[in-house]
Specification:
Number of helices: 6
Number of strands: 4
Structural class: alpha+beta
Shape: elongated
Helix content: 40-55%
Distance between the termini: 11 Å
Radius of gyration: 21 Å
CATH class of the largest domain: Alpha Beta
CATH topology of the largest domain: Alpha-Beta Plaits
Strand order of the largest sheet: 2-3-1-4
Largest sheet: 4 strands, antiparallel
Number of domains: 2
Strand content: 15-25%
């Protein structure tokens, strides 16, 4: 799994400088996408994909989160029914699956970073560019540090998960 670093950049010229530096740091230029509202010119910058522009990752997170909660609630109802009908082995199985469901939700909510396009709406409405850079987890800190050091006008917007195989 890759991490998607988000940077808010005031103009396309500075964005191109950041792209040049990122490619110099070993980031493939196909992993650098730029999103802008109001049909702002992004010059030669690679635009965000359709999935990135529509923030499909938030859509998927919502589906999995609500699905996990629904699954947990169904298992809770089943647990109550099995306890009332004295099917203790089935009750134990329900309880075990509920614990797994809870653990997965807890890990996702606690340890997996979430930054979505909606968090940048205000800056984007003021004609800033959002650059999304997909990097391996190991390179994340070094790249953030280099960009911050060489381009102080660039605002770091946090990171989130990214799946390369499904373009999310």
């Amino acid at each position: 799994m890759f991490r998607r670093l988000n940077f808010l950049i005031p103009n396309a010229k500075l964005a191109q400088e950041v792209v040049n530096e990122l490619t110099g740091l070993g980031v493939n230029d196909k992993n650098i996408h730029t999103y802008a509202e109001h049909n702002l010119p992004t010059d030669s910058l690679l635009p965000a994909t359709k999935n990135q522009a529509e923030d499909r990752s938030q859509y998927l997170e919502d589906i999995f989160w609500k699905g996990n909660l629904s699954f947990f609630f169904i298992l809770l109802c089943l647990l109550i029914i099995t306890l009332l009908t004295s099917h203790y082995l089935l009750s134990l199985a329900c309880l075990g699956i509920m614990l797994v469901s809870f653990s997965i939700g807890n890990i996702f909510a606690t340890y997996i970073p979430h930054v979505h396009l909606s968090e940048f709406k205000n800056a984007l409405s003021h004609n800033e560019l959002l650059m999304m850079v997909d990097v391996p987890y190991e390179k994340m800190h070094d790249i953030e540090t280099q960009i911050h050091r060489h381009h102080p006008a660039v605002v770091e917007g946090g990171s989130s998960w990214a799946l390369k195989g499904v373009d999310i």
